[in-house]
Amino acid sequence: MSYKKWIYKYKYLLAEQDEIEERFSEYASEFNKVFKRKEEPSKEKKKSNIDWDSGAEDKIEDNEEISEEKAKTKKEPKKGRELYKKISKEVHPDKGGNEKDFKIISELYHEGDILGMYLKAEELGVELEDSDLGDAEENFELSCASISEKNMVKMQTLAWVWAKASPEKRKELIIQIKNTYNLEYIK
Questions:
Q1: Which of 29, 36, 97, 145 lies 20 to 30 Å from 136, alpha-carbon distance?
Q2: pLDDT tens digits for 67-116?
């Protein structure tokens, strides 16, 4: 795929991400109006790790797996490290750049969004060479896949599933949610 097509695809995914985030906020608000947490489980029961403040995102995970995954992530070299270093040298606040741009570049790097870093560098007038992108096709594909994955995560939350469910399906979901997540349904 040509560079121009990757840019269009990437920008489309970003626009879609904004739309999904807006819808998700609405759906989470609706979900939180109809479901409330029941009393806290006793200490003997294993507590689930659900982030209730994030709009009912289903984040039940084993803490040991999370720690292991974080350890692996820290050891693996990140894609785009050289690109990040080159851009950081120019946008770092100590080098005459501003903190906001530096934070954006850092976030893009930590998310593995190489295409995002490349576009931000272009926007800021940072001179880049083709070699700075490494395997451009692979890096662009990874950037687009990362955004698509974030979008899918939002669309698989309890709030999203609830909002998109038909009235018949909602009846089934009420029972499932009550039993699985210890939530109380409020009409």
A1: 97
A2: 445 444 444 446 678 888 888 888 899 988 889 999 999 998 888 888 88
What is the Rg, in whole angstroms, of the alpha carbon atoms belonging to the chain?
Answer: 21
Helix ranges (DSSP H) in the chain: 3-34, 63-75, 81-91, 99-111, 114-124, 136-155, 158-164, 167-181
Distance CA 149, CA 58 (A): 15
Amino acid letter, residue 73: T
- Give the integer Cα–Cα distance in Å for 67 and 121: 33
Q: Domain residue spans in the chain?
A: 1-63+153-187
The CA angle 96-101-104, to the nearest 5 degrees, is: 145
CA triple 149-15-23, angle to 5 deg: 75
Task: Return d(Cα 14, Cα 18) in angstroms, integer.
Answer: 6
Tell which residue, 151, 154, 153, 133, has the closest CA to residue 6. 133
pTM of the model: 0.65
Tell me how crowded residue 69 is: count the other CB atoms within 10 A of its CB: 11
Residue 118 tokens read as 């490349």
* DSSP output for 31-72: HHHHEEE-SPPPTTSPPP---GGGTS------HHHHHHHHHH
Q: Residue 132 contacts by C-beta under 8 Å, 6 or more apart in sequence?
A: 82, 83, 86, 118
